[in-house]
Amino acid sequence: MSKPEFFVTPGYGERKLELFHYSQAVRVGNRVETAGQGGWNDDDEFPEGIADEIARAFENVEQTLALAGADWQHVVHVNSYHLPLDETAVQTMAERFRHYLPGQAPIWTCIGVPALGDPRMRVEIRVTAVLPE
Fold this sequence. Notes:
By secondary structure, the chain is of the alpha+beta class. Helix content is 31%, strand content 25%.
């Protein structure tokens, strides 16, 4: 088995590592797993609207995947956590999937939760990517 390699996204990832002692991604062989990515920016601010927050979370997933040598085309599994889980959130997620993954449809687990890691968060997205061997 390959040794795990951990990645910290510049900006917000460095802050989260310092405050909470966790990395944003890990790569083991050709498999990349991300920690849940919120819709924050590097100043730990969140957009006002849920659609913008989801869009920003997708951008953060993209940035984090890139650190580990992957991108959205390698994503095979998505978990998304929503507060609240409503039609706007589900439709926005589907729109973002069509944008970032036009040629494939990953498996997706979509969960409504009572709380997320930051009380300002309304979405968190975690992915698994598999790189070609």
